[in-house]
Amino acid sequence: MFKNVSRRQFVQASAVAMAGLSLAACGGNEGGSEGGDGASSIKVGILGPHTGDVANYGIACRNGAQLYFDQLNEDGGINGKQVEYLVEDEQGDPTQAVTAYNLLVEQGVVGIVGDVTTGPTTAVAQQSVNDNMPCVTPSATAAEIVTYGNNTFRACVTDPEQGRIMAAFANEQGYKNIGTLYLKGDDYNEGVNNAFVEEAKALGITITTEQSYSAGDVDFNSQLTTIIATNPDAILAPNYYEDDGLIVTQARQQGYTGVILGVDGWSGVADYASAEDLQNCYYCCAFSSANDEGLAAQFTADYEAAYGETPTNFCALGYDAAMVLAAGIAAAEEAGLEAGSDEYLQAVIDGIAAGSVEGVTGTIAYEGTGDPVKSSLILTFTEDGAEEVFETIDATA
Amino acid sequence: MEEELMAEKRPIISTGGRGPAPAGKRRSLPMAARYAINALLVLLVLVVGELMIDGGAITRYQTSVLQQVGVYIIMAVSLNVATGYLGQLPLGHAGFMSVGAYGCAIFIMRLTETLGMTGRDIVAGGPLVGLIVFAGVVFGGLCAAVAGVIIGIPALRLKGDYLAIITLAFAEIIRVVMLNIDDVLGFELTRGAAGLTGIPSYSNFLNVFLAVAVVCFLVHTMMKSRHGRAILAIRDNEIAAEATGVNTTYYKTLAFVVSAFFAGVAGGLYAGCVGVLQPANFGFMQSIEILVMVVLGGMGSMLGSVLSATVLTILPEALRAFSDYRMIAYAVVLILVMIFRPQGLLGSYDFSLSRVIERVMNRDFPWSKRAASDGKAGEEVSADV
């Protein structure tokens, strides 16, 4: 029967077999949720980009949140109920984020940790208002995300807030003239830069020049020459770490030895600039694995044990976002409400709004808005290039 | 007139019949009946769909996927006009989509603000809302059509690879304009990199699928008209078309602008589905994704575009259970189709319900045909009802 199989038929058959095998192999890895069974469990969603261009942020947040829920379940869960987390991927695309959000709502979650990046989070925030679904975003920093309704909270501080923190820090250190160099066309970089400039001017600091560059640039020498020519006490570079590493290196090559300031996009910059060049650099961040203070050190150890790598800022924020949500759910459970009702969701939201948690990125409390009132760290670098906590800036209301 | 045409056997546009009718004059459906049957079916699908959503048989998640399917059907069908019918390869379709999306969203947001309506009023619906959404979507389409004229006139002087590159470049220009236009104008329009947010969710199953039906109908009738035939003639042989008196520049631009217009319509509906627009979402990959739908379905086949847009939109959702591996499965499907069906799933075949009914009326079934005509039937190139 098989002796008349042509080459074409053979190729077809083997392709079908391969496809079948690969699908079967994929099937084996299925299922992201664990713990909990049926009636005695509480369902929560974890939403973020776990594949695609911004997957590294989504995966970090997911790992952090999963670690928290796993620990919570080991300690007996909330009100004796296990937390069952459902993980959905949205690839950093707002359309998929809305779809995945709808899927989570249908599966009966009582709260969502997510979304992660600004665009998809905005889309989800606008949708979730209609359901009054409690959402805690670990990392979306655009100011208006929390303004669509009362149901969205964030675990991080906003872009403008970071700009203001650095301006206050610069003032406290006595820098009088500051030049800035930022990426144009990105809301994060521009948002921080504008807030910094505004606050710095209000504090009496002179902004000598504001230079910008475009996405993909690798040579910052002309902008740096202009900035250094104005003889600044410090340079602000509120960008992501790849660019900041190059900026630091090129500034040092031009003979600039002064201070360089950054914000949380610097997290990870140590791989992109030498330890020597990173001296005299300061940036603000919610979390550092170098922080040896109680909770943060414990989290670093737990995370390393669970995933075998050092946690980043995003891992810690994911962990804290999960903690904030769990605290809200605990409040609703204590009130004896039934999951699935509108009152339950409102109770979770009220619980988050009224509560205060001791997170690994500092104490998080919400005072009437979805923006947290929390402390920030100012980090610098030791002589061998390791991060070091320079100062803790307390929460300002 | 129609019957005469149908009776003729023409090489490019087949009559659908694969030979003469068995005996005597072929029976055919009058045009009015053809339109009535199709209109009735569309209405039936809409009513049944809406009832199923209201009754909860189609969940909210499935509805949101269906809306995306509708948007991508319009995108694929509109790109098919330029790719399948006109035979060009534009790589900047997402650019037109973004122009339409921003145009429609800004129009609706400004208008509802002036009228003092809230987002909830719009979700609630009503005749006024329907009118606003209709006007907004058409406005979005017109914005895209204007962009199509501006881009089409210089771009269509080029052919093949060159046209692909220049449309790609224009789409990038559109994206960069969206990013920076606020700084130039001095007031808030697109809100740059931060994205346009707070767009009311005016898209729903009903208006998306009404738009799908209208767009398919318009594209179909255009392709059956004199203009459509001229466009097909340019695809098949531009020099021959020009020699027979077809104004090639005019018809190329027309097809390109029509394609842009409907992409703008799809963009307007997309904005209402998502609620937030960022220029980054309309990059090169988005254009490629739509082109993949058209090529996969078969260039020049409307049914192919509709089917592949549906399958390719649902596939990543259906494969959610495979978690991180789903994008590989998606790619594997693409590779398999391209290896075993390089002309696309349907080639250039187009489905015609009336043709099927006519066959039944004439007892002209494929299986009875095969014996009679020795299987000399070839690929059909058609745009019949």
Automatic annotation (TrEMBL), chain A:
Q: Name one Pfam family in it.
A: Peripla_BP_6
Q: Where does the signal peptide begin and end?
A: 1-24
Q: Alphabetically list the UniProt keywords.
A: Amino-acid transport, Signal, Transport
Superkingdom is Bacteria
Output the CDD domains linked to this UniProt entry. PBP1_ABC_LivK_ligand_binding-like (cd06347)
- Give the coiled coil ranges: none
Where the record annotates domain Leucine-binding protein, the positions are: 41-369
Q: Which InterPro entries match?
A: BCAA_transport (IPR051010), Leu-bd (IPR028081), Leu_Ile_Val-bd (IPR000709), Peripla_BP_I (IPR028082), TAT_signal (IPR006311)
Q: Which family does it belong to?
A: Belongs to the leucine-binding protein family.
Q: What name has this protein been given in UniProt? A: ABC transporter substrate-binding protein
UniProtKB/TrEMBL annotation, chain B:
Specify the superkingdom: Bacteria
Residue runs in coiled coils: none
Membrane spanning residue stretches: 35-53, 65-87, 94-111, 131-155, 162-181, 201-219, 254-278, 290-315, 327-346
The membrane-topology field of this record reads: Multi-pass membrane protein
Q: Where in the cell is it found?
A: Cell membrane
One Pfam family name is BPD_transp_2
Q: Does the keyword Transmembrane apply?
A: yes
Name assigned to this protein: Branched-chain amino acid ABC transporter permease
Q: What is the lineage of its organism?
A: Bacteria, Bacillati, Actinomycetota, Coriobacteriia, Coriobacteriales
